[in-house]
Amino acid sequence: MLTNLHPPKVIEFALCQITEILKKHIEITSLYYFGMLSSAQGTHNSLNNDASKQQQHYHFYLFLLSKHIPSNSVANLSDIVRQDSGGKYTISLLLYMPKQLIAASDHNKYFFSNNPIRWFG
Question: Could you give the dihedral angle defined by the CA atoms of residues 58, 62, 66 and 70, in that order, rounded to the nearest 10 degrees?
Fold first, then answer.
């Protein structure tokens, strides 16, 4: 859901940063964005009625296609995105090779055909 806190330009900027981080570690055939959660943390100093800086955190749900997937890539890439972004971005990642999708049965393709996901690249 888009709100004033999450205009499309903010989401696109974050996705550009995440894409650049991922490109350093895996060859991306396609990258799809299909959801996001966010949270903010802040404190309020009641002595001088001053609010501290809020720290915003974004969690993205991504679907990535790559021709070559090293072992343990999902966990490694998730950790890399978190570390390289200073904890501002985290990801949940579905990672497949194109040939896996081509070979999948119709039943296994249900998720891909019935969920609105947007390509980002």
Answer: 60
What is the rounded distance in angstroms from the CA atom of residue 30 to the CA atom of residue 52? Answer: 39
Helices 73-84 and 8-23, axial angle in degrees (round to 10): 120
Block mean pLDDT (10 aa), the chain, length 121: 60 92 94 83 62 75 93 95 95 91 74 55 47
Quick check: 66 and 101 in contact, CB under 8 A?
A: no
In a 3-state reduction of DSSP, which class is residue 33?
Answer: strand
Residue 112 burial by Cβ neighbours in a 10 Å radius (0-12, 13-18, 19+):
middle
Answer yes or no: are the C-beta atoms of 90 and 78 closer than 8 Å: yes
pTM across the whole model = 0.74
Within 10 A of 17 (CB to CB), how many other CB atoms are there?
16
Which CA distances in Å does 38 have to 13, 57, 58, 85? 14, 5, 4, 15
